[in-house]
């Protein structure tokens, strides 16, 4: 809704964008009627978007602000990924009643495990803090199956951990560029926001990735 109210798009572009958003909203992978004859596992994002005749700035907004792609490689990849990302964004926006699709910890990252600890307890889970010398266990195929501490092993299907726990298995997949940007004017529509995410698309910055 906010995208359609924005002055970044003209009247006719808003109509085209609305049709595309409705298609994404109604799309269900298991319902062929919602596909409108398109196989999104084969059709690229570029081909899907071209069907609606959207302008480059709108494509940038969709790909980088909604689907959160960091570069433009997605345009030539199957459209199903972008559509799923957009649907996740919309569903998250509707789920959290704060005008944002994101969960943001107000008092540090420790808030996240605390939230999941409460949810885990509801389903009978056990939460342990400050366990010393945690060691991730792997089977013969190299798949993690548990964590050992103080002679006890907690078995699991997946392990989520900080890279420092597995320094010999960490793979470099990208870099984070940090900057302090001093603006010469206020950012529109952010006056009453508790937190703000500003995405600067790569094309507008003439960079290889977004900021």
TrEMBL record:
Claim: RNA-binding is one of the keywords in the record: no
GO CC terms of this entry: apoplast; cytoplasm
GO MF, one example: Rab GDP-dissociation inhibitor activity
Protein name: Guanosine nucleotide diphosphate dissociation inhibitor
Keywords per UniProt: GTPase activation
Gene Ontology biological process: protein transport; small GTPase-mediated signal transduction; vesicle-mediated transport
Family membership noted in the UniProt record: Belongs to the Rab GDI family.
Known role: Regulates the GDP/GTP exchange reaction of most RAB proteins by inhibiting the dissociation of GDP from them, and the subsequent binding of GTP.
PANTHER family on file: GUANOSINE NUCLEOTIDE DIPHOSPHATE DISSOCIATION INHIBITOR, RAB GDP-DISSOCIATION INHIBITOR
């Amino acid at each position: 809704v906010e995208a359609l109210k924005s002055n970044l798009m003209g009247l006719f572009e808003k109509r085209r964008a609305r049709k595309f958003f409705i298609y994404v909203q109604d799309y269900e992978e298991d319902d062929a009627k919602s596909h409108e004859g398109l196989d999104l596992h084969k059709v690229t994002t570029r081909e899907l978007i071209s069907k609606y005749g959207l302008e480059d700035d709108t494509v940038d907004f969709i790909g980088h602000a909604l689907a959160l792609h960091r570069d433009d490689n997605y345009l030539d990849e199957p459209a199903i990924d972008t559509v799923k990302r957009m649907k996740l964004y919309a569903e998250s926006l509707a789920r959290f009643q704060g005008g944002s699709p994101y969960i943001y910890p107000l008092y540090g990252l420790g808030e996240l495990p605390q939230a999941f600890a409460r949810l885990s307890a509801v389903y009978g889970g056990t939460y342990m803090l400050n366990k010393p010398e945690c060691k991730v266990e792997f089977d013969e195929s190299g798949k993690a199956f548990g964590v050992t501490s103080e002679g006890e092993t907690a078995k699991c299907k997946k392990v989520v951990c900080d890279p420092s726990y597995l320094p010999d298995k960490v793979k470099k997949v990208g870099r984070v560029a940090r900057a302090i940007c001093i603006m010469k004017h206020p950012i529109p529509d952010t006056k009453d926001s508790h937190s703000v995410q500003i995405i600067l698309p790569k094309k507008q910055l003439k960079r290889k990735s977004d900021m």
